Amino acid sequence: MIRYKSSRQLSISEFKMPFEAKLDENNRWVFLSKIVPWEEFARLYYKNFKSNRGAPTKDARLVLGVVIIKHIMKTDDRGVIEMIQENPCMQYFLGLEAFTYEQVMTPSLPVSIRKRIDLDVFESLTDDLIRKGLKLKAGAKQEEVDTVAKDDGVNNDDDPDPHPGNKGKLQMD
Q1: What is the maximum span of the chain, computed from C-alpha positions, in angstroms?
Q2: The predicted structure's pLDDT at residue 8
Q3: What tens digit of pLDDT does each residue of 25-53 get?
Q4: Total domain count, the chain
Q5: Whole-number Å distance between alpha carbons of 91 and 99
Q6: 93 belongs to a structural domain
Q7: Which residues are bridge partners to 98 per DSSP?
């Protein structure tokens, strides 16, 4: 049975934390939550399940998020579940509405999910995520170059080669 929950990202102020604490907008998990193609993954993930049979599925965002965290942190299934249990930013990344001290899933569940999901699905999503990351990185580098050029205040339009080659000589023994 499919239980779908929209992947609309909560705002940081909507995420409930104990002790009136607030999430850091610059945290990598908060930032990453905005660029992951959650809807695309949900579509591919739910294609593998029958809508009217069996136990309810875990939310697609939760499943993909656990896989992403596991690979970024280079840990095992048990370790990733413990990290998520302790980290409110990771829980926000997974789409939870509030911080919880409970495990988001049992450590054995990622194994059964990997068995059920086609490897092509994860490869497709990984490729999409990498492309988005590279676009963001390229945009940030271009922005940095533009900022440096403006800060220099030097007009280099008449410079024929903006990247001059090496001018040293190689000596071989």
Answers
A1: 75
A2: 62
A3: 888 998 888 888 888 888 877 877 776 77
A4: 1
A5: 7
A6: yes
A7: 16
Tokens 């339009």 identify what position? 157
Is residue 44 included in any domain, yes or no? Answer: yes
Q: In terms of residue numbers, what domain contains 102?
A: 22-132
Examine residue 118 and state whether it is found in any structural domain, yes or no: yes
- Predicted confidence (pLDDT) at residue 150 exceeds the cutoff of 60: no
Phi then psi for residue 55, to 5 deg, are: -70, 155
**Does pLDDT of 151 surpass 90?**
no
Residue 74 Rama label (left phi>0; alpha psi -120 to 50; beta): left
Show the 3-state SS of 45-92: HHCCCCCCCCCCCCCHHHHHHHHHHHHHHCCCHHHHHHHHHHCHHHHH
Q: What is the pTM of this model?
A: 0.66
Q: Which of 16, 72, 70, 63 is nearest to 42 (CA)?
A: 63
The two structure tokens encoding residue 139: 């945009």
Establish how many alpha carbons lie within 13 A of residue 166's alpha carbon, considering only the half-sphere containing its beta carbon: 3
End-to-end CA distance of the chain: 72
Q: Which has more pLDDT, 52 or 105?
A: 105
Does 84 fall in a domain?
Answer: yes
